[in-house]
Amino acid sequence: MPKWLWYSILTTVFWGAWGVVSKLAMDRISPMVNQVVFTLGLLPLVLVVARSGKIWTGQHRWRGGTFAFITGVLGGIGNITMYEALSHGGKASTVVPVTGVYPLFTVLTAIPLLKEKLNWVQVAGIAMAIGAILLFSA
Hints:
With about 140 residues, the chain is mainly alpha-helical. Helices cover about 80% and strands about 0% of the residues. The longest helix is centred in the middle third of the chain and has 27 residues, at about 60-85. The relative contact order is 0.08.
């Protein structure tokens, strides 16, 4: 099994568990408090990563760091809005898959901004993702 596939499967498992635990949290605390505690939960991982020998690799660290910071802000806002959906009656079995098609936004944004091109398989995938959103929201 290729290494990337193994990591992808692990990501799916961890993010799947994250979706279930997020709903459990939303039944007990507010979305804002959950985001703060979620962020505190990242601190042990920050300590592990900070000890990595590869932490300072890369050619444009300041620019990359700026984009990484913006990624964190956008991800945090996305978390809060998802937590709001869960705390306002959304079921984890519906909210998490619907929000899980966020790569659709990435793909559609990459076309004009990054000048990326889609092939017919990717266009079919976009159509299926839109269909999935409609099915989940029905």
